[in-house]
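ugh ok fine here u go
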Amino acid sequence: MISQNMKRKIKAPVFSKGYSFIKVSIPLSGILVFGLFLFGFTFVSDTYEASDQRPNIVLIIADDMAWDDCGACGHPNIKTPNIDQLAANGMMFRNAFLTTSSCSPTRASIVTGTYPHQTDAEQLHWEIPPDKVTFVEKLKEAGYWTGQAGKWHMGDHIKDRFDFLAEENTDILRESYGELPEADGSGSHLWVPLLEHRPENQPFFLWLAAFDPHRVYYEGTIKEPHVPEDVILPPYVPDTERVRKDFAMYYDEISRLDEYIGRVVETLERQGVLQNTVILFISDNGRPFPRDKTTLYDSGIKTPFIVKWPETIPPGTETKSLVSVIDIAPTFLTLAGLEAGDEFVGKDFSPILTDPKEKIRSYIYGQAHWHDHENFVRAIRDDRFKYIRNFFNDLPLTPPADALNGGTFAEIRQQMHDGTLDEKQRATYFEPRPDEELYDVINDPHELNNLVDDPAYREELVRLRSDLLEFMETYNDRVPRLRTPDGFHRVSGALLPNITFPRPPKKVMFGDCECLYLPPTPFFEFD
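structure:
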């Protein structure tokens, strides 16, 4: 049972009496740790006191990991003992979702607490503009030491919101830690050195982002690799040896990520701060395979979402309440004793941490934009049904470039040539999409049976269509008149001359003119 006092911890962080709460400059010589301090932060002059009881916050982000590709989420064969232990000792969110299924746009949405189109960084590789507010700077201003290690992918303009960026300060890390671990492609080798480098007696926030399990894949990633027999395939890819080997190497990178998560937890425990550290583990989008990453199916936007906080959350807790990663920013600020301003449009999910049956939202919303190929899709999902609107429905559901150039899509191309793909596989990858899609995600978890034309589901269709339109109008979410050219060939995966790096920002490509966007209403005029 959680005591009433513990519940009050979350709702109203306590500041010790007798001290004034003032802003101080934070030294750069600290280590980043993904944790969250819930309680009051107190100090005299520029000295941080041990009486500060606010939780540390550690955010761990996997790169391209599907929501159900770990033992704790139901996969019987992937080796993830540390993620499983994280869930066993914390709270598993069974219905957590991303706002998009694309690497940099997801990160922009999380750090700003806004929907992708509001970040002005909704297309892949667009930088977050300098005028955007992040929850990180709010924590920093309130006395948290803020650090980052691993994959960045948010542009240069918000780097100063962190006190310390590990990859840009390896010489400083080496002075305090000693010889640094060798980079192994995981993006996680500096997580522990950053944690060791943090200042003592000061609450900290760490953004720890992996490259695993992003493509490209290689054999020998882990000592005991997965084998094709370990693989569980979704029905929309062919079941062949080449596909199974591709999935097995993806599993290996998840296991490597799991090892680093274990090292972070171990370090926090050794430092004596684990009890009052909030650890949140998520992924930035679905697995980098066809019909997963960049889509708004659950395989693209549903995410593992595990919160461990020994001081507050009983072991083995789970919730089915809907949450979105847009809710992370206001929640972290609340736990730090701060008020989330109107610039953050998500909802505080901290009440769920003490009452798993608490509900903070009825729907989640998803968006898809340019990611290697042009796209503009919107989705709304409740506990049972999902409605998808394909605004550029003349375009097929082409996988991202990394998946196009992987072993699984190579097999799909070959079978398309040989005429051995089944009907749904052909439609998925090589034909225009329907205007609308409606799925019963409970009875059809892979979202293969479109119910739009089924009169038995007319009420759900009309309801969700109306709710999506209301969302788009409320958040000024409009369809662009201009399309962004594809950056890669949709079948071969070859790089096209239409793309340059770094990509020009949104204002350079599209400008600010209202004439460049269409209102959503005409696109919802269906019989």
